[in-house]
């Protein structure tokens, strides 16, 4: 193990993803960071009827397992931090406890909420205020769904803490909103980087249930069970972490990043937000990154559709690793099918393979007959979407992208598919 090599330079990172999560021990050897995965687990989710929730207590137990393994490997652990996906939050009562499990952003209860927002504030005004892509899944839509469907619980809510920040809170006892994660909510003023209270008031939302916003790297305190270990709000948003880790070459030309996981995030880094009308129309968003940078990007469906197919196959007793399904896809014929997986029909959980087949049939396309053909269609469609998005990005920023850095689970894909360059 790496853990015993540098006992005074050991750091624990929890990376919570929408499909799987992990605990990583980082060991600083001079200027080189060495990492070791200590614990990996499926991110636990609860299904109740049509609604999906994140299982907080099971997640917390998994984090405790990861922490204990880190302390066993290196009792002189320096610090820990948690990152997660955006959008979702834990509603907290005045005693500081969760009122319920947090909804998953794929719960259908937010359908139509963005339309209701845009009845109160114009699209251009909303984009100018927040700089965020209009998504039914974001925090703004979720809070309005709370107000409409769970008014009693809404009134009990004294604080709303984003997922990663919630677990940092449980570790340290201090509740905050780290800026990179808070910036995904569509409730932050894009210029001042404070809560957009005027916007909240305009759409009928309470303004007294939001934690203090802090910059990336804020020390929250010590671990409640071990005062020697600091708890740090790093970049609490997983994409902010991924982009911060992009190994940009010193003399690289104009570059962009593609963080490819359950979601795909494609964009560039800038020092200030881009709030043009063309940026809004092409659905680009301005989120905060490390050191106050701006991640100008768009949210795209990523490996979600493939992950859902894999989940369904596993339920049928058919479990495949990526090498197997990529080999099958490479051997499959190119059916010439390209699907826009950002279509609403692919947003929700369940029957994903059949949804794809039905979509192809309804559009007069060739219908995949085998698993390899299906996987090839999925990956070819994603590649085509990335290409179109790169072109749109170049149009918005007025600059030709020369280098694309790919990070995340999708970087493991070795299948090469032809696209129209």
Give the helix/strand class: alpha/beta
Shape: globular
Strand order of the largest sheet: 3-2-1-6-12-11
Number of helices: 14
| Radius of gyration using CA atoms only | 21 Å
Q: What's the pLDDT, averaged over the residues?
A: 93
CATH-defined superfamily of the largest domain: ATPase, nucleotide binding domain
> What is the CATH topology of the largest domain?
Nucleotidyltransferase, domain 5
Oligomer: single chain
CATH architecture of the largest domain: 2-Layer Sandwich
In short:
This protein has helices spanning 56-73, 113-120, 123-130, 139-149, 151-156, 163-172, 179-182, 197-202, 238-244, 277-281, 304-315, 322-331, 352-362, 371-397, and strands at 10-16, 20-29, 32-42, 45-48, 51-54, 79-83, 89-92, 159-162, 176-178, 212-214, 218-223, 226-233, 255-260, 263-270, 285-288, 294-301, 403-407.
SSE layout and pairing:
Elements: E1 10-16, E2 20-29, E3 32-42, E4 45-48, E5 51-54, H1 56-73, E6 79-83, E7 89-92, H2 113-120, H3 123-130, H4 139-149, H5 151-156, E8 159-162, H6 163-172, E9 176-178, H7 179-182, H8 197-202, E10 212-214, E11 218-223, E12 226-233, H9 238-244, E13 255-260, E14 263-270, H10 277-281, E15 285-288, E16 294-301, H11 304-315, H12 322-331, H13 352-362, H14 371-397, E17 403-407
């Amino acid at each position: 193990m790496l853990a015993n090599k540098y006992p005074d330079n050991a750091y624990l990172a929890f990376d919570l993803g929408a499909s799987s999560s992990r605990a990583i021990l980082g060991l600083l050897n001079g200027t080189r960071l060495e990492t070791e995965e200590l614990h990996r687990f499926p991110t636990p989710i609860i299904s109740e009827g049509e609604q999906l929730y994140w299982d907080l207590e099971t997640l917390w137990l998994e984090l405790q397992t990861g922490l204990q393994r880190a302390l066993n490997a290196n009792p002189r652990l320096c610090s820990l931090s948690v990152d997660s996906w955006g959008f979702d939050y834990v509603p907290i009562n005045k005693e500081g406890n969760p009122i319920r499990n947090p909804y998953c952003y794929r719960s259908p209860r937010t359908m139509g909420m963005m339309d209701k927002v845009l009845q109160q504030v114009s699209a251009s005004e909303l984009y100018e205020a927040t700089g965020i892509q209009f998504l039914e899944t974001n925090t703004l839509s979720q809070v309005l769904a709370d107000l409409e469907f769970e008014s009693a619980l809404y009134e009990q809510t004294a604080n709303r803490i984003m997922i990663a920040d919630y677990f940092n809170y449980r570790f340290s006892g201090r509740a905050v909103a780290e800026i990179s994660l808070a910036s995904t909510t569509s409730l932050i003023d894009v210029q001042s980087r404070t809560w957009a209270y005027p916007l909240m008031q305009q759409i009928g939302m309470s303004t007294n249930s939001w934690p203090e916003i802090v910059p990336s790297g804020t020390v929250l305190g010590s671990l409640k069970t071990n005062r020697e270990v600091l708890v740090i709000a790093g970049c609490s948003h997983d994409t902010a972490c991924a982009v911060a880790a992009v190994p940009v070459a010193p003399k690289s030309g104009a570059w962009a990043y593609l963080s490819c996981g359950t979601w795909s995030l494609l964009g560039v880094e800038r020092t200030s937000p881009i709030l043009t009308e063309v940026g809004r129309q092409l659905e680009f968003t301005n989120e905060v990154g490390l050191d106050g940078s701006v991640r100008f990007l768009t949210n795209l469906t990523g490996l979600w559709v493939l992950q859902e197919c894999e989940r369904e196959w596993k339920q049928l007793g058919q479990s495949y690793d990526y090498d197997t399904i990529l080999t099958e896809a490479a051997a499959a014929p190119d059916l010439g099918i390209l699907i826009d997986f950002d279509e609403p029909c692919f947003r929700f959980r369940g029957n994903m393979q059949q949804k794809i087949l039905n979509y192809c049939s309804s559009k007069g396309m060739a219908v995949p007959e085998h698993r390899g053909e299906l996987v090839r269609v999925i990956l070819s469609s994603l590649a085509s979407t990335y290409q179109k998005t790169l072109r749109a990005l170049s149009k918005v920023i007025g600059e030709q992208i020369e280098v694309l850095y790919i990070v995340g689970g999708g970087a493991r894909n070795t299948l090469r598919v032809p696209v129209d360059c």
